[in-house]
Amino acid sequence: MTRRFMSGVEAGSMDVFDSYNMAVVDTIYPRTGDYSVEFVIDPVGGTYAWADHLMGGTHGEGDAVDTIYVRAYIRGTSALDTASGLSVFGFYGGSIGSDKIVYFDTAGELYGYYGGVWNDLGGMVTGVDADDTYHLWEIYLKVSQDNVTPDGAITVKRDGAVVYTDTDLQTSDATTVTEVTRVVFAGNIGSVTPDPLGGGYLYYDDIAINDEDDNGGLDPNDGWPGAGAIYGLSPRAAGSMMGPPFDKDEWTPTPGTGEGNWEDVKDVPAVDTTYVTSAQVGDTETYLMDELSALGLSSSAYIAAVNYIIRGKLPSAGSETLDLVYLMNQSNESYPTSISVDDTTFEPIQKILGFDPVTGLEWIADSIDDSEFGFRQG
To answer: What are the residue ranges of helices labelled H in the chain?
Structure first.
């Protein structure tokens, strides 16, 4: 595993995160694409919005790691009191992601948790700017494996420049907390008492989480994510595995009033009144997607990763398997993964592919534009 999580909330839903509070999808201030995440900060009302990602959860890849890289473009509004000590990134360990490890705040201070309290690790060169401008923030964290002789490490970058580094970081005095299991965006982790006049908003976009595993040399996302953008591609037409000559138009459209199946699954944000259903194992559909060339990318542009996002559920209690289908140049099929769905709700399920599963090579914009993506009942 390498790319663990990526989101610009281009699915138009906060449900791409494992949990969140008071954070909402924003359509006014996206950095790229159509959406960003808005975190409201209201000290008077006691509101400190946040969202999180669980390593090994249903919205990303892989299990807990002792080394992690996180990226987010962050925009502080001019009304935000950045000296108020509100958290920017927070890292937790433990089986349920409740054991504190480290966080840094809008003022540029870092804190490590040991001795039962948050300890100030020192300040960065700069904090989050309240300038209504997106800045690239990246953080590398290695969790200490020794609580006697700390061997953790942390480096923070802003717009590509290092603003803090520590190579003998004490991240915890509990020897069981040696891995990151949860990453929290925004919030009020340190439970400080911000200036009551320091309300405002933080916006996050183009979030990425990497680890250090290069997947046998196949995946390049094994370090700093660096600059980048995340775009949402939706179905734009039926693929070759629907209708002649393959006779694969096997899922039933709803409402079924003459629309194409692809039209019932393309809505963003998603609505639950248009969808397709299947009652037969092996039923398959693929779709032509919006083209990257229409976004201005060159045909040879390198794409760091592709993230499938599918919302699925069952009509009644039980469980079924859904295979994700990738069809390259209308000839080479690949079934990258299987995901389980139940009858509770339309749940967004994600699968990140750091390389083309057919060629085994890095993704190229032209190959994505020439390919089809879909699903098959397993």
So the answer is: 261-264, 365-369
